[in-house]
UniProtKB/TrEMBL annotation:
This is assimilatory sulfite reductase (ferredoxin). Gene3D superfamilies: 3.90.480.20, Sulfite Reductase Hemoprotein, domain 1. It comes from Cryobacterium glucosi. It is an enzyme of class 1 (oxidoreductase). Its cofactor is [4Fe-4S] cluster. Residues 184-334, 436-573 form the Nitrite/sulphite reductase 4Fe-4S domain. It comes from the Bacteria. Residues 109-175, 359-424 form the Nitrite/Sulfite reductase ferredoxin-like domain.
Amino acid sequence: MARAVPAPKEDPVSPNQTEAATPARPHRQAGRPNGQWKVDGTAPLNGNEAWKQEDGGLSVRERVENIYSKQGFDSIEGTDLHGRMRWWGLYTQRKPGIDGGKTATLEPHELEDKYFMLRVRIDGGQLTTTQLRVIGEISHEFGRDSADLTDRQNIQLHWIRIEDVPEIWTRLEAVGLQTTEACGDVPRVILGSPVAGIAADELIDPSGLITDITARYIGDESLANLPRKFKTAITGSPSQDVVHEINDISYVAVEHPELGVGFDLWVGGGLSTAPRLAERLGVFITPDRVAEVWHGVASLFRDYGYRRLRNKARLKFLLADWGPEKFRQILEDEFLDSSLPDGPAAPPPTRAGDHVGVHKQADGRYYIGVTPFVGRVSGPTLLSLADLLEANGSTRLRTTPHQKLVLLDIPEENVESLIVALDEIGLAARPSLFRRSTIACTGIEYCKLAIVETKKSATDAVLELEKRLASIDVPQPISLHVNGCPNSCARIQTADIGLKGQLLPDGNGGQVPGFQVHLGGGLASQDREEAGLGRTVRGLKVTADDIADYVERIVLRFLADRGETETFAVWAHRADEEALQ
C-alpha cells in the first residue's frame, strides 16, 4: 500500500467565536506569503506544515504496528499522536468528566483519554453483511459496543486501545474495509448515493467511479499533504442525496442535451465556523473524465490552497478569492488534459434524499431506509442487523449522509415482517418526523472540541416531541441538527433548526449547557430549489433541558402563522424576531 504524507492537526475553535452567516475572505497583507506552493514555494509557514513535510502521515502505520501497539499509549510521539495518526482514522477521545467550560482552556493532552476514536471509511456508503458483521464484532470486542453512524457515511468506534489497532486493521482489511485517510489533510471518504445501482429513477450509477478514485488515489503520497481536508460527493440520483452543496468537490448527475448523461461539477463548499455553499463551475463532466477532473481539483487545491493559516486553508477560501471563472480556467489550463464543455444545471430534486421508508428497486425488490436515534447504534445492533438481512435474503446495505441506513434487495413478501424486526433493534422504517430529521454530532461524550452533550440531549428531545406533537399535522419534516461546538459537524447552518453548543449563564453565577439557535437553513430538496444558510437572531439561545420546549413552541407558531404552501425555512426567514423566540 502506498504510504502517504502526514496530516495537520485540526485547530480548536473558541467556544465564544461568533459564526458569520457568510465567510469572510482571507485577510492578507499585500505581498505576504500565504503558503501557496505554486506561488510562494513549499517552505512551511507553521508547525503543522513543517511536520507534514518532515514525515508523511501514512508513515505512522509502521510505528503503530511495530512500536506503539507493543509499548503502549505513553510511547506515542507527540506529532504522531496529535497529527499523523489521523491519516489512519485515529483521534484521541475526550477524557470522561471534563466539563465543557474547560474545552478551550486545557491543552489536548489534558483533555484526552488514553483511548481512540477509530473512523471506518465507507466510500459510497456501500457495505456487505460480512463487512457489517466484522465492524460489529470489532465494536463488541474492542470498543465497548460503541458505534455511531456519521453524516459522512462512515462508522465511528470508541474506546479503542492502541494495543488493539493492528488486529483491528487486519480484520477490516480482510473484508475490504479500511481506515486509510479517514481523517487528516487528505481526500476524505467519498460520499455516494445510498441507492446507487438500485433506484428505479437513477440517471447513472456512480459506484464504479467512486471505486476508481479510491483505488487510484487514496494512499497516494502525492495527494497526502493537502492544505486541509478535501471532501467529495458523487450522486447519480435525481434526489441529489449527497449534500453536494457543502463538499469541496461534488458531481451531480445531469443529462446534457447533446452529450448524454454525465455530471454537473460543484466546488468550494464547507461549513464549520465560516460557512460557504459550493458553486457550479458550469461545466459538464462525462463519466470517463470524472477521475481526471477529481485529481485535477485535488491537485489544484494542493498547489494553490492557502497553508499559512489553518483556519483559512479549506478550498472554499480559495474559491471565494478566485471566483468560479478563474478557478475553471486554472483547472483546465494547468491540471487537465483538455478543456471541459459547458453544461446545464441539474433540475431540483424530485424526492427526499434520506431514502427513509419502503421503496421499490429497479429490479422489483425493495429497499428500506431506517433510522436509529441520531446515528447512535452499537456492536450488538450491527450484528443483529446483519443476521436479519441475511435471514431475509439480502447481503447488502448502505450508510447515508443523514446518519441513516438503507437496506437493499428485500423481497416484497418479507418487507412488513422485517420492519417489525427492525423496530425491535431500534431501527425505524416509519419514524416520526422528528426522529427522521434529527441528527447530532459526537458531542462532549467523546469529542475534545465539544462544549456540550449532544446525542442524549437530541434523543430526549425527540422522544418528548413525539409525545407532545403526536396529534399535530406537520406538513413536512422539520430538520433539527444538534452540534456540540461551533465547528458544525452536524451541519447546523443547513437545518430548519440548528443548535450550536455553548455554555449559558444559569442566573446564579454559574453556567449550564445550551445552544445558539439557527433557523431556516437547508440544502436543495423536493421542498426547496436552492440551498441556503440559516438565520441567527441576536440573543436567541436555549438550554439543553429546554430543547423540546423551544422546538414545540416554534413549530406551533409556524403552523399558526404559515402561508398555505409555506415551508418552515421560508417562514423562519420572513418571521419577526418575536415569533422566533
